[in-house]
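Appendix C: a fully annotated inverse folding record. The material below is reproduced so that readers can follow the format used throughout the book. The structure is listed first as tokens, followed by the designed sequence.
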């Protein structure tokens, strides 16, 4: 360096444009990373939602069955599994074998559905020269049976005799019995079917018959022998 050369100048301040450029690059990288993370999270949530949408209808997340209204016409889960031979549970076979085979065609009995029941059958019954289908249902307790009966009777508060009146509730006698056998209710359903439902005092059971002709169904019902053999 010549003694006449000017002394070197100290370095100047950093270029503001350069700093802003570096900061912009850094924020761009952060933005890309955040976008990628949010995108992956969205895929995970959507996958979980799609999995839930494929669950069977009516099943809850805990696998508990949905509740149903009481009565022989609803649905239920049997207390034991059906057997492939006759399609009946052990409880239903026991119920079938207790029926009066003079009128109840045991071989015709098939698995039926009734909420809260331990066994439910739909069988062909022949009486008075005519054959019709009848539901026969067994519950776990008499209190459960009464709950089901009250569901029917509460809709028809008039006390009466189904031998003579319709849309009433009262008691009934099996053929040859001097004491009431159980409670009953007879009514016209909203689908036009006339329904006779009878319960028992000595066991948690009920049977139910339906028909389009109330008078004919009532006369047929009067010819029934005792339903159970024991």
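Designed amino acids, in order:
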């Amino acid at each position: 360096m010549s003694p006449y050369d000017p002394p070197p100048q100290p370095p100047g301040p950093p270029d503001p444009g350069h700093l802003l450029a570096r900061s912009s690059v850094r924020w761009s990288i952060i933005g890309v990373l955040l976008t990628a993370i949010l995108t992956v999270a969205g895929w995970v949530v959507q996958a979980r939602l799609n999995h839930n949408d494929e669950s069977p209808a009516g099943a809850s997340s805990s696998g508990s069955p949905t509740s149903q209204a009481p009565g022989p016409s609803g649905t239920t889960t049997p207390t034991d599994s059906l057997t492939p031979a006759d399609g009946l549970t052990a409880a239903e076979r026991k119920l079938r074998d207790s029926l009066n085979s003079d009128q109840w065609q045991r071989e015709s009995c098939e698995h039926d559905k009734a909420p809260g029941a331990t066994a439910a059958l739909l069988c062909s019954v022949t009486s008075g020269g005519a054959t019709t289908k009848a539901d026969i249902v067994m519950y776990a307790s008499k209190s459960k049976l009464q709950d089901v009966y009250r569901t029917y009777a509460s809709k028809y508060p008039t006390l009466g005799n189904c031998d003579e009146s319709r849309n009433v509730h009262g008691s009934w006698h099996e053929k040859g019995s001097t004491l009431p056998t159980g409670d009953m209710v007879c009514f016209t359903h909203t689908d036009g079917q006339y329904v006779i439902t009878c319960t028992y005092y000595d066991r948690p059971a009920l049977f139910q018959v339906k028909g389009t002709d109330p008078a004919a169904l009532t006369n047929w019902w009067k010819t029934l022998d005792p339903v159970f053999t024991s």
